[in-house]
User: What shape does this take?
Amino acid sequence: MTRSNSSITAGTLRPPPLKYTQISLPLTRLHCVTCGSGPPLIIVPATVSLISQWNPLAQFMGQRFTATFFELPGHGKSTPYPFQFSSRAVPKTVEALADKLGYRTFNLMGFSFGGLLALRTLEHLKHRIENVILLAPVVSHRAMKYSPAKQLLLRGMADVLKRPRIRKVVHQILHSDRMEGPLLYGISRFGNLDRRILEGMDALRLPISTLDVFAHTLGEILVTEFSSPSVPFKMPCFFTMSVNDDMLDYDLTENLVRGLFTDITIRKLYFPYHQPPHPPTFEWLVSEFGEFLEEMD
Assistant: This one.
């Protein structure tokens, strides 16, 4: 990869400026942020990631790339698909975005559920992708650290939430001030999620279109099994994940990713979580991941 002139050392931080755009594509009007200079990079978001929460990640990657991050159709300021959300539609959206940005080839990055979306995009566009970056990717429901009974219950909840009338009722309950405390407590305990993550995402104030995206992505996460290609992908893959991930099994995830690529660089982390309890800052990302980013040169 081409190395940019921007420094990523803690003493000379220069986070690149952010440029927000609404890009009209065939199936959606996509809310995007772009920053940095260098080879093009498209960052595929996790389930309900807002640009405002992940600007520091875009700026961090902008030290080496021209990084573009977007909100999933139906979430944030991106308009919904004209049909129910499906991860199978995301690769075509990424393709249309790359075309609109004028990228013949580009680098691809995905984290958490965005890792699955990135891999499905890679299947669709492998001839255009130069490097793949995966951060704690969801590649199999078998890697989920939930009991079979809990996974079955979550699948049932996702199916029910797909119904418009039920979704409307749930939306009203989530927006009730009286229910905020009990709901945050219950969701964090049942889902084994740090309450601070839910509060940082403003998880109880999701718009109704985002509930639809959440229901469909949750349902897919709990049944997904990314199948290995008959011939492993040949482009370089950079994989990083915490061995202490509280949501995904590290060993199983690493083994599955190893089977997908012939050229893989692995960096193990030791954080006690899948996702930081607070949205990461640019400075924190530089401190924790600066060396990993330099390995991509």
Q: What stands out?
A: Residues 1-11 have pLDDT under 50 and may be disordered. The longest helix spans residues 148-161.
